[in-house]
Structure formats: structure tokens, C-alpha cells
């Protein structure tokens, strides 16, 4: 849906915000930290997680997901199939990388409690994927595309037309 660089950035910011809020809340709740952290600690975690997610989405996962999704043999003019393919590969990439970020955070906070790192990582991927994919496909994706299309797309700053023939 985004066609310009400006549109891609705004769309990415909207998607990242929605995904980070829900996934971070889910993971803090699941690890029993939601009630133990102060609002300031949660805000700082959100900012750090958001920045990492936006950079990863913009420079790593987004380009790779786009390349994979649009190399598949399907009718690219079918907008629904294109959105589903892109969303699917975006979720896979983001879950793999952001779950790794979560594991590093848990390790640094000494919250792994001697568990197998690989087993914990695989469990975290499965848990996050089971929420992220349906949330992206059913709730956030359609909501962001609607808001973006209704209020953002083509409503950017108007550039004055300069008549060069004068």
C-alpha cells in the first residue's frame, strides 16, 4: 500500500507501534513481569524494543520478506494474496529476530533460570508466532491499512507546482 518512502516510513511506524505494544505486553505478562515493572521501566522497554523492531523491520526483515513474497508464483495483481504473503513473511522474520532480542534481554536480566537457551528460544518463537500471525492478519494489518488509506495516504504535505516554462 505505501508507494513513497514517506508512506513506507509512516506505515512501518504504525505497524511497529501496534505490534510492539501487543507483543511486548504479552511477553511481559507471560514472563510475570508486567505487574512487577514500574510504568517508567515499561516505557523504557517499549522505546528500546520499538527502535530495534523498526530498524529490523525497515532494513532487514522488510526487504527480505518483500523479495521472498513477490518471488512466489502467484498473481501479483491479487491484492489479498499479496498482502497475505507479505504479512506472513514479515511475521516470520520479525518473530525470529525479536524473539532473539527477548532471549538476550532475559539472559541479561538473569531470567532464564538455567533453562536450555535453544529450547527456550524455540518455545518463545512458537508462542510469539501463535499470537503475532493472527493478530497481524485479522486485527492490526486491516486496521493499519484502513487508517493509513483513509488518513495518511496522499494527505502529505502539498508541494507547490513550479512552472519551469516562465
UniProtKB/TrEMBL annotation:
Q: Which UniProt keywords apply?
A: Membrane, Transmembrane, Transmembrane helix
> Where does this protein have coiled-coil stretches?
none
Q: Which residues cross the membrane?
A: 9-30, 42-62, 83-109, 129-148
The record ties this protein, via InterPro entries, to: DUF2798 (IPR021529)
Q: Which domain of life is it from?
A: Bacteria
What is the name listed in the Swiss-Prot or TrEMBL entry for this protein?
A: DUF2798 domain-containing protein
The species is: Paenibacillus xylanilyticus
Amino acid at each position: 500500500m505505501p508507494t513513497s518512502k514517506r508512506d513506507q516510513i509512516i506505515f512501518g511506524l504504525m505497524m511497529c507501534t501496534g505490534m510492539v505494544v501487543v507483543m511486548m505486553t504479552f511477553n511481559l505478562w507471560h514472563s510475570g513481569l508486567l505487574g512487577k515493572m514500574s510504568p517508567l521501566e515499561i516505557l523504557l522497554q517499549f522505546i528500546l524494543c520499538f527502535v530495534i523492531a523498526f530498524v529490523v523491520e525497515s532494513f532487514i526483515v522488510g526487504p527480505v520478506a518483500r523479495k521472498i513474497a513477490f518471488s512466489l508464483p502467484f498473481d501479483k495483481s491479487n491484492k489479498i494474496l499479496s498482502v497475505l504473503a507479505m504479512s506472513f513473511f514479515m511475521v516470520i522474520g520479525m518473530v525470529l529476530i525479536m524473539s532473539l532480542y527477548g532471549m538476550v534481554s532475559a539472559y541479561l536480566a538473569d531470567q532464564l533460570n538455567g533453562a536450555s537457551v535453544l529450547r527456550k528460544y524455540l518455545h518463545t518463537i512458537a508462542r510469539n508466532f501463535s499470537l503475532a500471525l493472527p493478530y497481524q492478519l485479522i486485527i492490526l494489518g486491516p486496521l493499519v491499512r484502513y487508517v493509513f488509506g483513509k488518513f495518511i495516504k496522499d494527505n502529505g504535505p502539498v508541494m507547490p507546482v513550479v512552472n519551469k516554462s516562465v
